[in-house]
Amino acid sequence: MSKLTAICYRLFQGEESAVDAAARDETHDFGGELVLTFQDGRELFVSWVGEPVQYAIGTKDSSHFLPDAELTRFDVSDSSAWADLIGQDVSLHFVAPENQVLKVSSASGQLLLCSYERGGWWADEVTVCKQAPAPYDA
Predict the structure, then answer these.
(1) Cα–Cα distance for residue pair 108/111, rounded to 1 Å
(2) Which of 87, 4, 83 lies closest to 42 in space, CA to CA?
(3) Nearest of 135, 56, 125, 51 to residue 94 by alpha carbon
């Protein structure tokens, strides 16, 4: 991968607290998606998906949502949560069974993107955290 130059959350109405949580470097979740932008201009969209299991994390080069989905874009590139990754060469790889935890890492830090919500691995949300919630230790 090339250098990560921007991170945006595309959030549904009512999910704006995720932006504040990212600024405070707290675990947070949302039902929308995030967009990783790389130095070469490529964008990678990350969201919850329904395969290989019903609740998993997926990536693709375009939005996971219909064009008319009411998502608002928030730039979180300057947030504390993403500070160790922005401007760095990052790698992405799944670290838990069934694509439920995607690790985004650089030489200086990492974040985990999980399909985890309120104590269970059955979320149609993305949880952004530093340490994997139980039962996975990524």
Answers:
(1) 11
(2) 4
(3) 56
